[in-house]
Amino acid sequence: MTIQISDWDQGENFYFYKNLPIKWVRIVGVVVAIDEFAGLRIFTVDDSSGACIQCSIVIPTPAKEVIAQHQQKELAQNTAGTTPPPPQPETYNNIQVGNVVDAKGGISVLWEERRITIEKMLVLRSTAQEVALWEKRTRFRAEVLDKPWVLQNRDLRKCRQEAEQSEDKAERKRKRLKAMIEGRAAEQSATRLPEQAKFGGEAQPSTRSLDLRQILQQGGAGKYDALGL
């Protein structure tokens, strides 16, 4: 099996089945529980795999819903006769416990458990629809999931080129930082030299201090000897 690299080169929220990268999933099962939290609705679905799967969707809180409706009303008044206002997100209020659903979405982690973030969910109206989806799942496993996944040669070349370009970019950045640091050090050295020249180089001890030290070292030569000191 060969997959285009453009389908997964973003590298976010990917999981693997064998060596096949997976981002989107689809399940069919019975809704056995519906829980609501602040801004979140979770449907627990039993797909007969041996474990129930939680499917979540973000729902607007009452305050945000009022604000959104007000903004939508203002937008409709301001843009009357032009473009229609954007549709509100689906919250699936019509789905109840006991419904058989077809849920599609991406894999996410919530409360240290993998879940499905719902992109689309439909209620199946008949057993025939459910059986058709089971058959579709069986074909997908045989034709896609159970076959080894490999990259095309052109995709491998593209990956190598991107890796080499990334290394070259990092090396150029290191060189720029090094040149910047060396340039600042040279500027600081050039600034210190005029200051030293202005004050006569390094600070010299005062003449008076030297004279007193010499007098003490010589034992008070001259008139101090005459005084017996």
From TrEMBL:
Protein name, per record: CST complex subunit Stn1 N-terminal domain-containing protein
Predominant localisation class: nucleus
Pfam families: Stn1
Stretches that traverse the bilayer: none
Any one GO cellular component localisation term in the record: chromosome, telomeric region
Organism per entry: Cylindrodendrum hubeiense
Ranges of residues in domain CST complex subunit Stn1 N-terminal: 14-57
Record region (Disordered): 183-210
